[in-house]
Amino acid sequence: MTRSAPWWCLVVPVKRLADAKTRLAGLAGPRREDLALAFALDTTEALVRCPLVAEVLVVTDEPVAASELGLLGAHVVADEPDAGLNPALVHGARVAQLRHPGAGVGAVSADLPALHDDELADVLSAAPTGSPGFVPDRSGRGTTMLLARDPRQFVPAFGAGSAARHRGAGAVALAAGATVRRDVDTEADLLAAVAHGLGPRTRAALAVIAPGRFVAAG
What we know:
It is built from 9 helices and 7 strands; from the N terminus they run E-H-H-E-H-E-H-E-H-E-E-H-E-H-H-H.
C-alpha cells in the first residue's frame, strides 16, 4: 500500500472494565464501567479517523470492549501475555508489524475522550526518525503516547512516572495539542477535558451519570 505521508499502526490497551477507572467510582458509581468503555470507544474512533493511521490494534481480554471496538474498525487481539500493560503493548506491536510491515508503531492510552484527530495527525507527522518520541500527559509525569517509526525502538515503559523513564531511554518529548495530552483518571481531569469537546459516547454516558454537569460552556 502506497501513501504520500508516513503511516502508523497504533496499539491501544484496554483493561477489563471491572478494573478500569477506579478513581472515578465516586462520580460514576455502578456506571463506572460504562464510562471507561465510552472513553476507549471515543479514543479509538478518533484514531481510526486519522488519515495517517493504517490500523488501530486493540489489546484486550474484555469481551464487551472487544466487540464494540471491533465495530468501530479496530483490529482486536487478546492479551496473550496477560502480564501487565507494557507486555500487552509489546504483544500488540508485534502483531502490528506482522499485519503492516514497514509501518511505524505507537501506543496510545485508551482514556483520551476529547482527542481530536487533527491534533493526533500533527503529533504523528512530527515523530522523530532516529529515536522514539513520546507525549507527556498534562502533569508532565505520565505518558499518553509512545511512537517509533522504527518498531525496533518501541520499548514501552508506561505506569507511574513513565515520562521520566521514556526520556531516560532516549525518547524525545513531543509538543502536542491539548487533547492528545488530556488523559482522564479523575473527576478534575474530566472537567478539564470538557472544554476541548468530549466524544459522543462519553457525553452520552455523562448525561446519565451526572445530567447537566459536564457540558461545555457556550
